[in-house]
Design brief:
- With about 400 residues, the protein is of the alpha/beta class.
- The protein has two domains: about 200 residues, Rossmann fold (3-Layer(aba) Sandwich); about 190 residues, Rossmann fold (3-Layer(aba) Sandwich).
- Helix content is about 40%, strand content about 15%.
- Strands 3-2-1-4-5-6 form a six-stranded parallel β-sheet, with helices on both faces.
- Helix 11 crosses helix 12.
- The protein starts with a helix and ends with a helix.
């Protein structure tokens, strides 16, 4: 099968993946029915300055809400802003509970719950009605907040919109999409080819007004204690020469179709070590330990890499990225974390679209690499049941391309 045939095949299957299924049609009908019940939940007693932000996603997507949170905090300095997120991403927003003096972006509280469909690596025993039961139960908890407004920050998150509706929150803002529309009091037009940060900013514009892109940086505060921990950690690994470049490679991602081959990361690491004298740090979560160690075994450079797997908090990982001269990896939360602390990055993209999920920062400091395969950015992150060989998009990116990109952002 040649490239054109492969791309045509994958486009056709991607279109099938994105179709509205019978189950989704039934759910859409049910959600509309719920919204039209003759006895709607009465509005909860509300504080006029209390706003609930709902974002069920993982690290990168939750990071993309930070500019909107900062904008809200500046526009409404006395507001009580609550974030409702998954326990897997609460650490992203934890620094904003007590930001440094003068820093915008203060949150009053962070609430967590295991949003249906978002828990990676976990299998829950559930029935068809369990998401609705959880929405009702969660709504009773949310009602106690007395929020005057809720913002559903994931465009298609019907569950969050339903929970806000059942909680009786008077103002419910989200995108004008079929599954969430029945529960919203204010719908925003949805632009598909718009960066996620821009989408989040647009959702809070009723309070902030329009915020230009260049006035909404992605910035994560690095704490002094986390910087101190990383300096001690690196020194213990024999890495304390500030004159040698420090390069972090984070090879993992939330989908196997977004990850590059370990042998290629090893080749990149060897080249950077030998040409620049760089000290390599390989990072990852516990589930990524096998991949990280495979890269380390495949490396041939005399200086062995530092393996930092599941031994840093999110704040400490941010400090490590801030200490680094360069961070490389596939599209993932840690790569966006590196962007948010101002470190140059090289991002490898496969099925995800960098127009929506690319680095939010100065383009000269953050390089995006993609295959030229015509079906790239299909938006399908799980091709269950299909041979991985049919989806070579990220694997078409070559070692030489990554090294050239690394050189360009370090100039």
């Amino acid at each position: 099968m040649d490239r054109a045939e492969l791309a045509a095949r994958n486009r056709a299957i991607a279109s099938f993946h994105h179709r509205v299924t019978l189950r989704q049609h039934i759910r859409r009908w049910l959600l509309t029915l719920i919204s039209r019940l003759p006895v709607a939940p009465p509005p909860a007693p509300a504080r006029p300055d209390s706003i609930l932000l709902i974002r069920p996603d993982h690290v990168g997507d939750v990071l993309f809400t930070v500019p909107a949170i900062r904008a809200l905090s500046r526009a409404l300095p006395g507001a009580e802003i609550t974030a409702l997120v998954g326990p897997w991403s609460a650490g992203v927003l934890a620094p904003f509970l007590t930001p440094p003096p003068g820093e915008a972006g203060r949150l009053a509280r962070i609430l967590t719950l295991p949003f249906p469909g978002f828990a990676r690596g976990r299998q829950f025993q559930r029935t068809a009605i369990s998401p609705y039961v959880l929405a009702w139960q969660s709504a009773q908890r949310l009602r106690k907040l007395g929020a005057a407004a809720a913002v559903v920050m994931r465009p298609d998150h019907w569950w969050g919109a339903l929970a806000a509706y059942l909680a009786g929150i008077p103002v419910r803002v989200g995108y004008d999409l079929p599954d969430v529309r029945p529960f919203l009091t204010e719908q925003r037009p949805f632009a598909a080819q718009t960066h996620s940060v821009r989408r989040n900013l647009d959702l809070v514009a009723r309070w902030t007004g329009h915020i230009p892109d260049d006035e909404a940086p992605l910035a994560f505060p690095v704490l002094d204690e986390d910087r101190a921990y990383i300096e001690s950690y690196l020194a213990a690994q024999g890495c304390c020469d500030a004159s040698a470049p420090l390069v972090v490679i984070h090879p993992g991602a939330g989908s196997a179709y977004k990850t590059w081959l370990p042998a290629r990361w090893a080749a990149v690491a060897d080249a950077l070590s030998e040409r620049m004298g760089a000290r390599i740090v390989l990072t990852g979560m516990a589930r990524e330990a096998y991949t990280v160690r495979a890269i380390a075994r495949a490396m041939t450079a005399p200086q062995k890499p530092i393996i930092a797997v599941d031994d840093t908090t999110l704040g400490q990982l941010a400090a490590l990225c801030a200490r680094a001269d360069l961070v490389l990896g596939p599209d993932s939360g840690p790569l966006h974390l590196a962007v948010s602390v101002g470190t140059p990055t090289v991002h490898l993209y496969g099925p995800a679209d960098p127009i929506i999920y690319g680095p939010w920062g100065e383009s000269a400091r953050h390089s995006v690499l993609q295959s030229t395969l015509a079906c790239v950015a299909c938006g399908v992150l799980d091709w269950s049941g299909d041979d991985l060989a049919y989806h070579p998009c990220i694997h078409e990116i070559g070692v030489a391309q990554v090294l050239a990109a690394a050189g360009s952002v370090l100039m």
